[in-house]
Specification:
The structure is a homodimer.
Chain A: E1 2-9, H1 18-33, E2 39-48, E3 57-65, H2 68-75, H3 79-86, E4 95-103
Antiparallel strand pairs in A: 1-3, 1-4, 2-3
Chain lengths: 105, 105
């Protein structure tokens, strides 16, 4: 199992509509990707490690797939539509990372 | 529910013992934290978003707790022992982030 993390670095003037991201954008991603997305999780940055510091990422999602190939097959054909929809909730450019799930839930 | 992400930024000369992290370190964290850690996940960086780029984080764990207070109560008394054990698998300094779990699994 792999996870693709899409992580939005926080900035002082960041716009990020957490409700839209949770209620509209991520369900759209799941619908478009179908079974190639086994499930996904979403989190909202609250704080950094040191007292009074902000979270590195204001919002993140993690898309869980059987393999990188499965992710690419499910995401690729809909990449444009998914990217276009992102503009509805944020102007931030995400950092992406592909990881092996070593210990899952 | 909140998650505390402990994320190790990759470097060209990074040492990171994924097996120790999975088999020894994280089980130690869970044992020490007890029920204040509901569960945890671990992942291993494979790749960045652009072709041929490395993952931002070589390894990460995410510790799930009912609240920030629950995390602090469970982690705080054992922080020194947990930090000391980290040296057994890496010299990297982690980036920490506390997040609200908006969509969990």
């Amino acid at each position: 199992m792999i996870k693709v993390s899409v992580m939005y670095p926080d900035t002082p003037a960041a716009r990020f509509d957490h409700e839209y991201y949770r209620d509209r954008h991520m369900p759209l991603v799941k619908t478009l990707m179908g079974d190639s997305c086994k499930y996904y999780t979403v989190d909202k940055g609250l704080a950094g490690g040191a007292p009074g510091t902000p979270a590195t990422y204001i919002g993140r999602c993690h898309i869980f797939c059987d393999s990188v190939q499965a992710f690419q097959a499910g995401f690729g054909p809909h990449a444009r539509q998914i990217m276009d929809d992102i503009a509805n909730c944020t102007d931030l450019a995400p950092v992406l990372q592909v990881s092996e799930v070593v210990v899952g839930h």
